[in-house]
Each structure stands twice: as structure tokens, then as C-alpha cells.
Specification:
Length: about 230
């Protein structure tokens, strides 16, 4: 089964999860990316059940709006029961690298405001240790060089994502070569670099449930292999 089919299967499983677990009329958090695009498509039959959605990017906002799902400002909701999003890598404890699509800051905000983070991914995203995928770091443009120097001092090789501006008006450094033994500790260190808006390490607030599309269908996983 190819990667796109695995993404679609995981996305459809997430729509089932939402149908079962989200109170009628509640607001759903929706992430960004190709897997989430499948998820948004799968939400169509559920849209009467949803009170609306908080979108993690302009791209997601437009796709939800095309389905006539009301877009809600996070500030008008406070907390969300469920947030569904993809990942670039996810480890056994459900720490993740995110931000391949550049929406990491809004994604991290919605994750922080959500009770349950449901990660949807194809089998290739599941790794034993994070770091093969270059870590995206959103940076205030005037601090790009300053931050790149600090990330290099941590052992990374930061590369500016050329021609890309985030929805928040910032740039992204993609940092290859980081050895991520302790994702929570590294997230704290990178958060403290002046000029960093947000890193794509989602370890302090990782996922709670992983719906993993595999060759053999979708597997529901909990952190560290706990049984669902
Ligand atoms: C966007 C993200 C995405 O969740 C991540 O890049 C995975 O994308 P895809 O579902 O296209 O593989 O973090 O900022």
C-alpha cells in the first residue's frame, strides 16, 4: 500500500474517532498538511455534527471553509477537546518533529489548547529516534543569522527555507544533523534562543493517540506501546 493510501486510511480513521469522541456541536482543532487534507475531506459527512473548527493555517482554513465548516477563533473557544494533525516524525513516546508544511507555530498553539492530540501519519513517520527529518524552526527574520549560529553551536546545520514566509510573517530554518536523544530538553533549549518564535519539536506537548496507516491497515497506538 503506498504512502498516500496510508495517509488517507489514517485520516479516515481520525474522522471516525471524531465522530465517536467529539460532543455534537463542539469545536475541533485541525492541523495542516497532506494527511490533514485527507482528514478534512473525510469530515464532510460529519460537518452537521461540528460546531466549527480552529484552523492551524491559511491553507487549512480555506479547505475547511470550502466545505462550509465554520472557522472559529481560538480566543473565542479557550480549550478544545480534540486536535487532529500530522507529523514529519513521531517517536515511541509520541514526541514529534512537525513543521514540514511551515505551520508549526499555530499547530503548537492549538496543541497546547487541546485536551487530546490525535496524530495521523503513514508508517514511514514512525521512528525510534527523532532527527532524520530536518527540524523546522520559525524565526523572526532579523534574527535569522543570530539564531542560525546558535543552532549550529548545538550541532545542527541550519538552512533557510528559501522563498517561504510563514502565515505569521516569519522565516523558517530547517536544521539537519541534530542528534535528538532528549527531545524535551532540546525543545526547552531551542525555545530559549532569542529570535526563535517556535521550534518544530513537539515533545513537551506531544501526541496522545497515534492513528498509523500501515500496509496492514490502521493501527491505534498509545505512547510507549501502551494498549489502547
Ligand atoms: C505542517 C506539519 C505536517 O503535519 C507535517 O509536515 C506532515 O505533513 P504531511 O501530512 O503532508 O506528511 O507539521 O506544518
Amino acid at each position: 500500500m503506498n504512502q498516500a493510501q496510508q495517509k488517507q486510511d489514517a485520516a479516515e480513521a481520525a474522522a471516525d474517532y471524531v465522530a465517536t469522541h467529539l460532543e455534537p456541536g463542539a469545536i475541533l482543532g485541525v492541523g495542516t498538511g497532506s494527511t490533514v487534507n485527507f482528514f478534512i475531506d473525510a469530515l464532510a459527512p460529519l460537518k452537521e455534527q461540528l460546531g466549527g473548527a480552529v484552523a492551524s493555517s491559511e491553507a487549512t482554513r480555506q479547505r475547511l471553509a470550502a466545505l462550509d465548516i465554520p472557522i472559529v477563533d481560538l480566543n473565542d473557544v479557550g480549550r478544545l477537546a480534540i486536535y487532529v494533525d500530522g507529523a514529519d516524525e513521531i517517536d515511541p513516546g509520541f514526541a514529534m518533529i512537525k513543521g514540514g508544511g511551515g505551520a508549526l507555530t499555530r499547530e503548537k498553539i492549538i496543541a497546547a489548547a487541546s485536551d487530546v492530540f490525535v496524530c495521523i501519519a503513514d508508517a514511514g513517520k514512525r521512528v525510534d529516534q527523532l532527527g532524520r527529518f530536518p527540524l523546522p524552526v520559525e524565526v523572526i527574520p532579523m534574527a535569522r543569522r543570530l539564531v542560525a549560529g546558535q543552532l549550529a553551536a548545538l550541532g545542527g546545520e541550519p538552512v533557510l527555507r528559501e522563498g517561504f514566509v510563514t502565515d505569521n510573517g516569519h522565516c523558517i530554518l530547517d536544521v539537519a544533523g541534530l542528534v535528538i536523544h532528549k527531545p524535551r530538553a532540546l525543545e526547552i533549549i531551542i525555545n530559549q534562543i532569542t529570535g526563535v518564535v517556535c521550534s518544530g519539536l513537539f515533545a513537551l506537548r506531544g501526541a496522545d493517540v497515534l492513528l498509523l496507516g500501515t500496509e496492514d491497515g490502521v493501527i491505534t497506538c498509545l505512547p510507549f506501546g501502551a494498549l489502547p
